[in-house]
Amino acid sequence: MSVQSDHPLLLMCRTVTLVAAVLLLHGCQSPDPYAPFERTPRDIGTAQSVSWEHVRDRTEVSAWEPDVQWQGPLIRDILQLGPWPPTTADQKTALDSAWRGFTAFEGTRVAVQGIDSVLQSSGAISQAAADITAALSRFQQHFPAAPIPNLDMGYTGYNYSVYPMPDLLMVGCEFFIGSDHPAVKNLPPHIYPGYMQSRMVPEHLVADALRGWLLVQFQEGHYPANGQLSQELLYWGKVLFIARCIAPDVSPWDLMDWTPQEWQWAQDHEMQVWVELRKKEFLYTTKRMDIQRWVADAPFTKAGAVPQDSPDRLGWYMGLRWAEDFMVRHPEMSLSQLMDQADVLPFLQSYRPKG
Predict the structure, then answer these.
(1) Mean pLDDT, to the nearest integer, of 220-244?
(2) What is the separation of C-alpha 153 from the centre of its chain, rounded to a whole number of angstroms?
(3) Which among 302, 290, 273, 170 has a CA at the least distance from the CA of 228?
(4) Domain boundaries, the chain
(5) What confidence score (pLDDT) does residue 281 get?
(6) pLDDT tens digits, residue range 145-201?
(7) pLDDT of residue 231
């Protein structure tokens, strides 16, 4: 006996089947590993300075306010213009001369004009400073015993994009004025090749500053200096996971210094990369050259049979994926507890490669 398509029993069965399918699809959706770590920024008293303006205005050293936090690191450590503070008249005269030469140098003038026209005029510097400060506030809520640095938006003469110290985070703003700017195009290609210049965009400022500071913040006691590749990737992954938690508005591709297309490539080829990473006991190598192939800046990830159309530093991405899947399976774990997890095996056991 046939049953009509509009028979009540058949309609009820169809409804139950549809509801079950919807519930099954909903149940298969991956939980958001970052959801438990939302924090509202709060004022933690982080001081902000803009030392790049002193370069732009060619402010004489003698006119500087005494004991300003960024002066020593910039003059003594980054630019290496002389001792700071100068203790004799001769030291002061030599420092004044060196500073005048540095600020008058054509490369300096072009780069600082780029900071002014690209970042300052658009409001990007003030917005970046606000975003970094908010992220540091979230970090402080997760790591209340950790020191929180003050922030300086500076110019370092293309020496450091990020100069992190326990009490001061200095950002070299010249690294983020855009790859088409003359100051960037005139950089020596043997030091800053094209693929590196292409990343010197305003969108990477906040991500680079936070990533650089976190790497140094956790280095002592957490970084496996002579460890295996798997331990290196896990360290990067945990740092990137924490960076995404404290800066939820920063896109994951900017956090990697990638384009959206490069991020998509990593997602589309994750299984392929995972298979390659597991070959020949790669995960357990301690050879620095082999490790660098997975984590170093390059035109692409020069490891094994990874295709040349890949983005570089795919090891960062894999470490992040390990951390994400581990935290999905351990929602009770805090960020500080995550950072203390040094054993790679539980992360590999939790990991489920995409694709």
Answers:
(1) 95
(2) 17
(3) 290
(4) 48-217, 226-350
(5) 79
(6) 999 999 999 999 999 999 999 899 999 999 999 999 999 999 999 999 999 999 999
(7) 97
Distance CA 315, CA 321 (A): 10
Query: Which candidate, 30, 289, 48, 317, places its Cα nearest to that of 169?
Result: 48
SS (H, E, C) the chain: CCCCCCCHHHHHHHHHHHHHHHHHHHHHCCCCCCHHHCCCCCCCCCCEECCHHHHHCCCCHHHCCCCCCCHHHHHHHHCCCCCCCCCCHHHHHHHHHHHHHHHHCHHHHHHHHHHHHHHHCCCHHHHHHHHHHHHHHHHHHHCCCCCCCEEEEECCCCCCCEEECCCEEEEEHHHHCCCCCHHHHCCCCCCCCHHHHCCCCHHHHHHHHHHHHHHHHCHHHHCCCCCCHHHHHHHHHHHHHHHHHHCCCCCHHHHCCCCHHHHHHHHHCHHHHHHHHCHHHHHHCCCHHHHHHHHCCCCCCCCCCCCCCCCCCHHHHHHHHHHHHHHHHCCCCCHHHHHHCCCCHHHHHHCCCCC
**Of 50-54, 148-152, 253-257, 282-286, which gets the smallest average pLDDT?**
282-286
Lowest mean pLDDT among 22-31, 176-185, 201-210, 297-306: 22-31
Q: Rounded CA gap, 275 and 27, in Å?
A: 27
